[in-house]
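RECORD TYPE: inverse folding
INPUT: structure tokens
STRUCTURE:
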């Protein structure tokens, strides 16, 4: 009985994660080596690096953390919310800053049409990337403007005229960001279904007239 319930939960989770939609997202990416990926992942796991923050002025970071520490003693929930907001704002600033760097153009976010699921993302790019390439991805969900940082591995590529469709499987993403991604996908799926139904109804009414 318990085993059956566990299997049902696993199947439900796999179903949630496998839902794929057509979407538009803000995205930037850069290729990194296997060694760099392992180093960054280890630092995340050991708490030495924040998964949302690439860099921050040390003086500002120290001041913010000092105030958050005091706030945690009075209101831990509020402190947790402000900490997440601080992380996201820092990420946004970092993304803007990297757009000014000519040698990191791939990392500068822009709008991409994508195939999106909780397991991965597919997109068109002028850059040819071979399967097995590891990418550090910066993704912003629209219209929420929810940004997160994750890692993926190129699993497939296909040339279409002068561009390449690149399919990427997520190999590391935080549980919170994956859950937010799933919520976004469900929301977009419901909206798209409603729009298709409305379009069919309009076409049907037009024929009747």
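DESIGNED SEQUENCE:
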């Amino acid at each position: 009985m318990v085993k059956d319930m566990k299997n049902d939960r696993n199947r439900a989770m796999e179903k949630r994660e496998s839902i794929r939609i057509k979407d538009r997202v803000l995205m930037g990416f850069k290729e990194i080596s296997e060694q760099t990926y392992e180093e960054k992942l280890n630092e995340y796991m050991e708490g030495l690096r924040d998964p949302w923050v690439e860099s921050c002025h040390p003086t500002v970071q120290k001041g913010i953390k000092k105030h958050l520490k005091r706030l945690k003693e009075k209101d831990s929930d509020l402190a947790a919310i402000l900490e997440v907001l601080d992380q996201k704002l820092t990420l946004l600033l970092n993304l803007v800053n990297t757009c000014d760097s000519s040698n990191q153009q791939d990392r500068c976010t822009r709008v991409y049409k994508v195939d999106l699921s909780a397991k991965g993302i597919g997109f068109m790019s002028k850059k040819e990337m071979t399967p097995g390439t590891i990418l550090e991805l910066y993704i912003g969900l629209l219209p929420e403007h929810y940004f997160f940082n994750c890692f993926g591995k190129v699993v497939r590529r296909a040339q279409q005229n002068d561009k390449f469709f690149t399919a990427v499987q997520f190999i590391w993403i935080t549980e919170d960001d994956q859950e937010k991604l799933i919520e976004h996908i469900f929301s977009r799926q419901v909206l798209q279904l409603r729009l298709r139904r409305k379009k069919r109804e309009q076409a049907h009414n037009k024929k009747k007239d």
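NOTES: Residues 20-208 form a domain with the Thrombin, subunit H fold (CATH 2.40.10.220).
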